[in-house]
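To whoever is on call:

I kicked off a structure prediction for a single chain this morning and the downstream step that reads the tokens threw a length-mismatch warning. I double-checked the sequence; it's 479 residues and nothing unusual in it as far as I can see. Pasting both halves so you can look.
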Amino acid sequence: MLAALTGLCRSTGTARLAAATTVSGLVAAGVLSGAGTAVADGTPLTEGGATATNNGLKTYGEAVIHEDGGDLRVSAGLFEMSVDGGGTLQTYGVDLHNPAQRDARYEETPWSGTSLGTNKNAGRIRWILRHSYPQVNDLAALARKAGTRGLTEQDAAAGTQVAIWRYSDGADVNAVDPQAEKLADYLEKSARGAGEPRASLTLDPPAVSGRPGHRLGPVTVHTTANAVTVSPPADAATSGVRIVDKKGKAITSAKNGSRLYFDIPEDPAGDSADAFGSGASTAELTVQASTTVPVGRAFASESRSQTQILAGSSESTVSATATAGWASQGPIPAVSARENCAKGRVDITAVNNGDQPFTFQLMGAGHTVPAGATRTVTVPLQEDQAYDFTITGPHGFSHRFTGVLDCKTQGAVTTQTVAQLPNAPSPASVGGSATQTTDLAATGASALTPLITGVAIGLVVIGGGVLVVLRRKDTTPDA
């Protein structure tokens, strides 16, 4: 859920809690108490891409989930999301046992940061998306392939969601409408493997560092857009920092594969200077584009709202950022972090392009990165565990990482973990008195409050037992 997070941040006053639902025992005592004016803003940054708000289910039918404790009737179909900066996304859920909360914020996320990263059937889900509604909007042709009399948009959306749930959650689930059920069966049996789609827009690496008077980078653009707009640091006019190509030519636009550099003057001025004292400084570039987000991209939310997978996209605004840090002497760190669902942890990587070791503190433990080297600190976490911790270093260096490790689909569906969708139809029971009616796929903010409170208390206890492992790898200063 939390994608790559960039470091090299300057002090921003008293830290404020980010959007994570709970705070675990991972957080340093100073942050828990509200102290630490040198702690950077904890709002998570992403690898890049689209950021959107969930508007709820828009086209849907009904399905029945068969559980040991009985059957549950739920809404099943397409969600709609509004993209920051313009655009609309259509998505299906891939985490049946978590409600999808209306107005939850979602960020484009690699499969490795969600349950799809460890799901051998993730490629089959993408095949379903590419061969069903709304990518296939000729419903008569889709009905013929599925062997049905006909399909409405609601049938097509419900049948597609049911087929996805069978692969994403291993769920025993059926569509209520017979035509939707035939479509679900056809899609499930026909699905073949497909690879993860490319991100709509990312910058790699998200953080670089080096000496003033040099070009720092490269930062490579990866995008599905035809072109992206490159915005220089906000204080570029006074600091003299430019964004250039390999030859030193200033650039304002780029394309997939373009390599960007921060051109740092010998004596930069402006707000970016002296971010950490002793001449250490930072700057940030932003790239933005308008493009259709590839079908099959995952979207995750820090509010533990149900993970989504993209089924359709209008022209949408996508963006990404990268940070550079420099100093005339001493350690010059570049720090980033990424959730690793395959290993159940967060990997924090520190690159030191300075001429002295970079020593930082994390969760009460000290770690040292020699000059010209890279170190990765791994922080193992429990599934569904919220984390909130801060890296601190010399000259006021501080960066805070927050999020929730949400890597698995698990658990039984119960009325304690779901909520009724406002204004949604209230269908009659299916399968006798053992059937319960709910709208698991729709929203769940109010019903989740007791659950979240209990989880938060448990995570504060669990967090204290987390281990940190330091591993080494060699690198050159410009790696």
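Update from on-call: the warning came from a stale cache, not from the record. Cleared it. Sanity check on the structure: The mean pLDDT is 78.
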